[in-house]
TrEMBL record:
It is a multi-pass membrane protein. It comes from the Bacteria. GO terms for cellular component: plasma membrane. Its main location: membrane. This is Oligosaccharide flippase family protein. The keyword Membrane applies. Keywords: Cell membrane, Membrane, Transmembrane, Transmembrane helix. The keyword Amino-acid biosynthesis does not apply. It comes from Salinicoccus cyprini. The chain crosses the membrane at residues 12-30, 36-60, 81-110, 142-175, 196-215, 235-254, 275-297, 317-340, 347-368, 374-396.
């Protein structure tokens, strides 16, 4: 229990660390730079999630393969280098100058090392060693906050602030994380084509789901940047960081309980659903408290954190409150579907949401701008949540009750 609480604390600190980055860029560098930083996240996000192949869920919950961690590690190495190649291809098709392209390339390297660290987290999640992951997040958050803050105040340069992220990530990876890797201490046996194919086939559905999920989240950002301005994207990104923080908290709690819930699901689906509904109820209490704070003090918090330039976004903060509810429960429903290895239907759901995101983004965001972007994101989450609930109800009715 202590390790699980530490993991939540570590994830909260990590989320605060990400938030501090946005605050410093917004206040010290400007809205254009924070918009550009958000654009980097939007460009690399889908590639990052696809290259990770959702091994953090697949390795602890899959029951079809019995490969050693070394095999999964070799698979991750291949997909991680593919991530760099894919990022370079993307850079060829986006309108960035030399300085901005250099910033993006450093950001890609930062994500490359983050992917390497994420696999070590995956190994420890599978072994229910949550304590290491919690300490790693805490140490990384502290180092990153110190270096990023120093770079922001001393140089006021997006290039050097992004470079501080890469340096922080490499320091934690080489001096702490690698000591807790299971695959790093074992004989390197390589990966055969058959093993690669089996992991690919097992994970491609869930990985594509995550890719589509990321694209659904980022399509409004692409439309805002292209049809309005990078500064408008910057405002949207800063407000949306409340969603990112919420998402990180939910992911941390999910990581803490997913192994236990997966074991319950193997023994009894009914027992799993009892535990899952209790988890949903716990989140409901947290949501109610959060919504009260957001409705009463949301705009004041926005101005206090980001400055006077964020005065007058009451409507967007109201839309944010609605969005946070869907953020929490779609992530919980996604975990439940993954535990039961219901990947194909998730792919169908995300494909439907992806098409809806494209259509509604052009219809709503182009004429209505910032508010339209929030409305589109809410519509996307609503479609996804309804589909997830439908699948879970079907599973309960025909797999559990029968």
């Amino acid at each position: 229990m202590q390790a699980k609480i530490m993991n939540i604390v570590g994830t909260l600190l990590f989320a605060i660390n990400q938030w501090v980055q946005v605050i410093l860029i917004t206040r010290l560098l400007g809205l254009y730079e924070v918009g550009l930083f958000s654009y980097f996240l939007a460009l690399t996000g889908p590639l990052v999630l696809f290259s990770r192949f959702m091994l953090s869920v697949l390795v602890p919950t899959q029951r079809k393969l019995s490969y050693d961690y070394v095999i999964f590690h070799e698979f991750r190495k291949i997909t991680n280098y593919a991530f760099i190649l894919g990022s370079v291809v993307v850079m060829l098709f986006v309108d960035l100058n030399v300085y901005e392209s250099l910033c993006l390339m450093i950001f890609v390297l930062f994500k490359f090392y983050e992917n390497k660290e994420e696999f070590i987290y995956t190994e420890n999640i599978a072994e229910a060693r949550i304590g290491f992951m919690a300490k790693s997040k805490i140490y990384k958050s502290i180092v990153t906050i110190v270096l990023f803050t120093a770079a922001s105040f001393m140089f006021r340069s997006l290039l050097l602030t992004v470079l501080s992220l890469l340096v922080s990530q490499m320091l934690i990876y080489y001096f702490y994380d690698r000591r807790f890797s299971f695959s790093a201490t074992r004989v390197k046996i390589g990966i055969r084509w058959m093993e690669f194919r089996n992991i690919f086939i097992l994970g491609i559905g869930l990985s594509t789901v995550e890719l589509l999920n990321s694209l659904v989240s980022n399509i409004p950002r692409y439309i805002l940047e292209h049809y309005h301005a990078v500064e408008t994207l910057g405002i949207f990104a800063t407000i949306m960081y409340f969603v990112i923080i919420t998402n990180n908290v939910v992911v941390a709690i999910n990581q803490s309980v997913v192994a236990g819930l997966a074991k319950e699901a193997q023994n009894s689906a009914g027992k799993f659903y009892c535990s899952f509904f209790r988890l949903c109820g716990m989140f409901l209490l947290i949501i109610i408290a959060g919504e009260v704070i957001l409705l009463l003090f949301g705009n004041d918090i926005l101005v206090l954190v980001y400055g006077e330039q964020f005065m007058g976004f009451e409507k967007e903060m109201l839309l944010l409150g609605i969005l946070l509810i869907f953020t929490v429960y779609t992530k919980l429903f996604e975990m439940a579907l993954s535990i039961f290895n219901i990947y194909n239907l998730q792919l169908l759901l995300q494909g439907t949401t992806f098409i809806a995101a494209i259509i509604f983004s052009f219809i709503i965001i182009i004429p209505y701008g910032l508010s339209g972007a929030f409305i589109v994101v809410i519509i996307n989450y609503l479609i996804l949540a309804l589909g997830q609930i439908g699948v879970l109800v079907y599973h309960w009715k025909y797999k559990v009750s029968s």
